[in-house]
């Protein structure tokens, strides 16, 4: 039971690593871990959401981003984001790190990514019930009546302005990534 994927970094609310712990130690509600949260859009600017499987312990049948998952100890947000996309929806895409937030109810530091993808998906049924594209207008209109995770709610203010800035025929839906550091976090060096 000492497999690397069983260990996670313990962080504080400033996302500073304090140590590592086995994933079972996070269930007591005292330790904060890291999560990568991925929002994917197609070239028409529609966001892909997935409905979590009914068997999930947390938020069963809630709508969430394209993929999400816990970082392994020492793993970067970006590496985790790519791993989770492959595992949950069978997709690979370029990703831009948009920022992070602390989810106090979940005791998770959440790194948010946006990417564009128009290919096929291979859904992992233990994780995903179904997937569907939503226009930003439909999300704005319907999200109050939808069962959506707090990660979607907290990510939309980061995602929607960037989606509007990069999507569309003039750019062909391509993302122009912001400068980022080696771990997928924004480069704060100013250059």
Automatic annotation (TrEMBL):
<feature type="domain" description="Nudix hydrolase">
    <location>
        <begin position="31"/>
        <end position="161"/>
    </location>
</feature>
<dbReference type="InterPro" id="IPR000086">
    <property type="entry name" value="NUDIX_hydrolase_dom"/>
</dbReference>
<keyword id="KW-0378">Hydrolase</keyword>
<protein>
    <submittedName>
        <fullName>NUDIX domain-containing protein</fullName>
    </submittedName>
</protein>
<dbReference type="InterPro" id="IPR020084">
    <property type="entry name" value="NUDIX_hydrolase_CS"/>
</dbReference>
<feature type="region of interest" description="Disordered">
    <location>
        <begin position="168"/>
        <end position="191"/>
    </location>
</feature>
<dbReference type="Pfam" id="PF00293">
    <property type="entry name" value="NUDIX"/>
</dbReference>
<feature type="compositionally biased region" description="Low complexity">
    <location>
        <begin position="177"/>
        <end position="191"/>
    </location>
</feature>
<dbReference type="InterPro" id="IPR015797">
    <property type="entry name" value="NUDIX_hydrolase-like_dom_sf"/>
</dbReference>
């Amino acid at each position: 039971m000492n497999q690397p994927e069983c260990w996670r970094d313990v962080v504080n609310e400033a996302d500073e690593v304090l140590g590592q712990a086995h994933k079972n130690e996070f269930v007591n509600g005292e330790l904060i871990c890291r999560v990568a949260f991925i929002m994917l859009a197609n070239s028409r600017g529609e966001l892909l959401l997935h409905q979590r499987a009914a068997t999930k312990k947390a938020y069963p049948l809630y709508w969430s981003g394209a993929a999400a998952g816990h970082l392994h100890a020492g793993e970067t947000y970006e590496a985790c984001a790519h791993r989770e996309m492959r595992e949950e929806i069978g997709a690979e895409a370029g990703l831009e790190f948009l920022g992070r937030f602390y989810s106090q109810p979940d005791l998770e530091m959440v790194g948010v990514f946006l990417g564009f993808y128009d290919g096929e998906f291979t859904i992992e049924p233990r994780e995903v019930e179904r997937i569907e594209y939503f226009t930003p207008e439909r999300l704005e209109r319907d999200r109050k009546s939808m069962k959506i995770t707090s990660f979607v709610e907290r990510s939309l203010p980061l995602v929607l302005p960037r989606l509007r800035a990069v999507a569309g025929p003039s750019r062909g839906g391509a993302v122009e990534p912001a400068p980022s550091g080696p771990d997928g976090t924004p480069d704060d060096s100013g250059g």
